[in-house]
Amino acid sequence: MFEGKNVIITGGSSGLGEELACTLAAKGANLALVARNQDKLRSVLEKIRSSGTRPIRIEIFQSDVCDFDAVEKTGKRIAETIGLPDILINSAGIISENYFEKIPIDTFQKVMGTNFFGTLNWIKAILPYFQKKGEGRIVNICSMAGLMGTFGYSGEVTRFFEILNRYFPSLTRWTSDLIIRQCYKGSGMGST
Ligand SMILES: NC(=O)c1ccc[n+]([C@@H]2O[C@H](COP(=O)([O-])OP(=O)(O)OC[C@H]3O[C@@H](n4cnc5c(N)ncnc54)[C@H](OP(=O)(O)O)[C@@H]3O)[C@@H](O)[C@H]2O)c1
User: pTM higher than 0.85, yes or no?
Assistant: First the structure.
């Protein structure tokens, strides 16, 4: 299913993104891993290359999901190096845990900037390539705390409620030439 597919993973240098990168590499996908810290990206690249999985194309891209111009340029570089993408996985994100009143306002702004706009930026930058290809899949990694109010995770709610409940359905309508399906799969908190 993933053999030969070109997969972009934002947040591919750590946590869920890193685990997905290792799993998809083992299944023969070509990978473009995106994050800000080059050293962490390089260490995942080396881990995958030394894991003995079958040869795949894997490239790392230092880029901030909050910066739309940078995202557009990175998307273009990815299309030129690994080819038109088949799958976009938005895993870059910040988790903020605390009482609502103890979370500084700039933390909410960072969470929205990264988790919401970072996801939106990548969807917007990659859709033209999916349209060119005639198909594509988008996976938005989402905390269950974003779907329901959860004690200690008020920062998460802002993000995922917006993306999944409001934005994604309208995206389906905006892109009439592509079929976009939504699916929800729950996960709890975990150390990755
Ligand atoms: N861990 C869990 O149990 C769990 C459960 C459900 C949902 N989630 C969700 O999954 C997402 C990832 O969680 P995680 O546990 O994998 O976190 P993590 O280990 O901290 O990894 C976050 C990744 O996102 C990247 N990133 C953060 N800000 C970025 C930015 N502005 N631009 C580009 N890359 C950025 C980080 O790399 P750089 O810092 O180098 O940029 C890193 O690769 C979160 O949004 C979280 O809500 C996590």
Answer: yes
